[in-house]
Amino acid sequence: MPSEQSPRSRTSTLRLVFDDPVLEAEFWKSQDAATVQQVRIAAVLGAAIIVFFGFLVHEVITRGHMGDYVLRYGLSIPAILLALLTTFSKRASRNRHAVFGAAMLMSCIVVNHDIVFTDLPTDWVHSANMLVVGFTFIFLALPFRVALLLAFVQTILYEMALVHRVGLDWFYITYSNAFFLSVQFVSGTAGFMLEKSYRNNFLQARKLDEQRALAEYNRMRSDTLLLNILPAQVAERLRTDPGIIADRFEEVSVLFADLVNFTGQSHNIEPEVLVRHLDNIFSRFDEVVEQHALEKIKTIGDAYMAVAGVPAVRADHAQAIARSALGMIKALHGLTWPSGDPVHVRIGIASGPAVAGVIGRKKFAFDLWGDTVNTASRMESGGEPGRIRVTERTYGLLRDAFRFEGPQTLEVKGKGKLDTWFLLGTN
Predict the structure, then answer these.
(1) d(Cα 157, Cα 7) in Å, to the nearest integer?
(2) pLDDT of 374-393, one tens digit each?
(3) Which residues of 52-62 are buried (b: 16+ CB within 10 A; e: fewer)?
(4) Is 70 in a helix, a strand, or coil?
(5) CA 133, CA 146: separation in Å to the nearest integer?
(6) Please, which pLDDT band fits residue 308 given cuts at 50, 70 and 90?
(7) CB distance 252 to 317 below 8 Å
(8) Which of 403, 353, 113, 347 is nearest to 252 (CA)?
(9) If we measure between CA atoms, which residue out of 35, 39, 37, 26 comes closest to residue 202?
(10) Which residues contact 137 (CB under 8 A, 6 or more apart)?
(11) 3-state class (DSSP) for residue 255
(12) Separation between Cα atoms, residue 266 and residue 262, nearest integer Å
């Protein structure tokens, strides 16, 4: 993956905002969900600290001055509790940052009010201001720009309160500011680096998710392509064991179908039209094969090969292949070539043992070998247009449930004369 960020994921350095507003919204949705427990703890802890120090300084507050109580318990505590409630409501959570920002502003007002209107030691209130800074930049997980705005407002309030309390004592003001602004700077830098880290982690997580999604898509696509080439059981075996896959099956039925006079028709048809017609024909064959749960092995030119009983053994292999053959004849009924000539097919079927396996390393092929395969091919080549020729063994498996014509003797290369039958239909 390239290391450069895409334009939409770039962050404005000073403001810490993604250029893409949608990405920015996604980031804060993810960030708020990840930090919700931290923010709840911060809210509870902040409220507890304000209440605790209110109790602790009760006797020190200027007699008869109710401003601290009103700000502390009438504004600051309710604001914090309201902010806490937003973390439990999906609708209100959209305004969480604004509500927490307002709660922190109330806390700043309470602290700096005490500098001006109470008899509390100034060092105590300086420390309280610094505590507010830590909450603002780090603990509440606020957007850095919001925390920065709050820090600016707090600084103004602090400076105004400090000057009101000590007058123009420049040494004391400088001494106090040295600590306060140092804490602001350190906390702000930490908050900036934290959010930058969160944003980088968010982008990395998105990249990982995209890579996982792409890998899953490629795996599914690869599986789909593999299933288009290989039977499901064979594809699964190939995924778990990439070695040689080969099996012997004692009882299968093999079908070959060949289009009659395809070569002659192809001379007078445009290539695109020819391929479209061939695709239409074989698609109809595919539907028939799928309907009867056969396994399509391959197409060779204008020939179509399928098998029953591979890779899943089945007792009704001959019956399934016979129904498929009859279905193929029916599927071509009324179909013509562009020349107007009807489309005919010769079909040959043989039953017996066969060996099946996967060959190839880059381009896989599931194929079938054996005398049964060769005999089925001879049944097809020695057949007649629109008819289905079967071997004696296939006939013996089907004669109780199907109608036949025959026997007829067929001279088969390498096997001599064989008795064969034409399958006509079911009983």
Answers:
(1) 39
(2) 999 999 999 999 999 999 99
(3) ebbeebeeebe
(4) helix
(5) 12
(6) very high
(7) yes
(8) 353
(9) 26
(10) 144, 147, 151, 187, 188, 190, 191
(11) strand
(12) 6
